[in-house]
Amino acid sequence: MLHIRNILYYFLAIGTLAHTHELQYGPPPALEQPLGLAEVDLGSSPLFSLHRDLVNIESISNNEHKVGVFLESYLKDHNYTVERQYIDFLESRKDNTRFNILAYRGSKRQTPVLLTSHIDTVPPFYPYKIHEKDDIWGRGSVDAKGCVATQFVAVQELLASKSISPNDVSLLFVVGEETGGEGMRAVNDLGMKWDTVIFGEPTELELASGHKGLLIFEVIAHGKAGHSGYPWLGKSANHILVPALAALQGLELPSSEKYGNSTLNIGSINGGVAANVIAETAVAKIGIRIAAGDSNDVKELVLEAIKKADKDIEVIFYGGSYGPVDIDHDVEGFKTITVNYGTDIPNLEGKHKRYLFGPGTVLVAHSDHEHLRAGDLVSAVEGYKKLVKAALKS
Ligand SMILES: *[C@@H]1O[C@H](CO)[C@@H](O)[C@H](O)[C@H]1NC(C)=O
Ligand SMILES: *[C@@H]1O[C@H](CO)[C@@H](O)[C@H](O)[C@H]1NC(C)=O
Fold first, then answer.
1. pTM score > 0.70 for this model?
2. Which of 52, 92, 194, 289 has its CA 20 to 30 A from that of 239?
3. Which residues, in sequence order, are CB contacts of 303 under 8 Å at separation 6+?
4. Atom of ligand 2 nearest to the CA of 255
5. Alpha carbon of 68 to ligand 2 centroid (Å)
6. Which residues sit with their C-beta closer than 6 Å to ligand 2?
7. pLDDT tens across 50-102, in order?
């Protein structure tokens, strides 16, 4: 424990993480020990202070302006060239525009390797807080500001140690990952291509070998309103919807050895207006995490089940559905993991190699107790450095 503290004090004191290689990569024994973050001056560690500053700026999807401005100026202060890519630019909200950030230290914007993550978070906002000396809490501390901070520090350290040249790697931080990936999809318009793209999302410091696919849709039942005492005068949309949803719950969805079972979530149901009125409309919003095959196959299963249930019912599929996404995981020294959440990976077109890696666990992301261990940020920097070096070698 003393040993670990000494290391931490050392790099905090000199303001660089260059000597943290003594902390082994992986879930090292070091992580069982508190780093004693609460007792030290975070301001003298670029990693922990950047992470803190990012978490403390509320950036719920659609409100990424402030964090974008902060990150842009932070990167410029570190001699990066920074480009904004506006998403849905509206003259009327000029002071609150959302933009992706592309940053590079060299003379070329087109680099062989790209490190990328997202700067938006889900609601609500929780500020940064250190608990029990070693746990960092706050919205985005895991998803995905832990990735943003550690990707930046990894590049800084690789440049400082001359392990890479400035034209090798660039950074891309996008908006709107949590709301369907409109930020990353816009990147396809930049006309750029990379050999390797390293995506940052919480993977518990393991290398993700794939993630489930996703299909999101609404089921809308159309009825006819009337007095509930005379049900034959109308047709209840609620009474149409309920058996249709039961049919969906009974569906046999595809499964695979790698991803397990597909899962269905009826996330919201709205229908009718009062107990004594026959419901005119009813709507359910549903998401399916797909474990095998194509999203079109699952669409067919859904349509078949719904059609059997009633004729006065329609299904609207949201755009951007996809089957399971296999991810490269051929770098030695990492454990591998599959995850059940979606990422921006399918939103970025191109033939690049792709990796998915980051600190923290999705099991607390999006919750009111989102947090990670401080030591995981240190390990993530090492992990990204390793991935970048492996990518440049191949
Ligand atoms: C940025 O570049 C200037 C001029 O080369 C240099 O003096 C300064 O130290 C650099 N700043 C950082 C943070 O690297
Ligand atoms: C998948 O579903 C089947 C049937 O419901 C169940 O027996 C099995 O344990 C599930 N597998 C996983 C990995 O959850």
1. yes
2. 289
3. 315
4. 1
5. 43
6. 255, 260-261
7. 999 999 999 999 999 999 999 999 999 999 999 999 998 777 777 789 999 99
Alpha-carbon gap, residue 87 to 215, rounded angstroms: 24
Domain ranges of the chain: 4-211+325-393, 213-317
**Crossing angle for the helix pair 145-160 and 46-56, to the nearest 10 degrees:** 150
Strands (E), the chain: 81-87, 98-104, 113-118, 129-131, 135-137, 169-174, 196-200, 207-211, 213-222, 255-256, 260-261, 263-271, 281-290, 313-317, 325-326, 336-339, 353-357, 371-373
The minimum-distance atom of ligand 1 relative to the CA of 77 is: 13
Cα 364 to ligand 1 centre (Å): 38
What architecture is the 213-317 domain classified under in CATH? Answer: 2-Layer Sandwich (3.30)
Could you confirm whether domain 4-211+325-393 is CATH 3.40.630.10?
Answer: yes
For residue range 12-62, list pLDDT tens digits in order: 333 333 333 333 333 333 344 556 676 667 778 999 999 999 999 999 999
The percentage of residues in the chain with a pLDDT greater than 70, rounded to a whole number, is: 90
213-317 and 4-211+325-393 share a CATH fold: no
Average pLDDT, the chain: 90
Q: Residue 234, by phi and psi: left (phi above 0), alpha (psi -120 to 50) or beta?
A: beta
Q: What tokens does 171 get?
A: 């950074």
The CB of 81 under 6 Å from ligand 1? The reply is no
Q: Determine the distance separating the centroid of ligand 1 and the alpha carbon of 79, expressed in angstroms.
A: 6
Weakest mean pLDDT among 159-163, 346-350, 390-394: 390-394
Matching residue, tokens 């089940």: 305
Which backbone phi and psi does 60 adopt, to 5 degrees? -60, 140
User: Burial of 363 by CB count in 10 Å (0-12 exposed, 13-18 middle, 19+ buried)?
Assistant: exposed
177 is catalytic: yes
Which ligand is closest in space to the CA of residue 80?
Answer: 1
Cα–Cα nearest to 181, from 298, 348, 69 = 348
Q: SS3 of 289, please?
A: strand
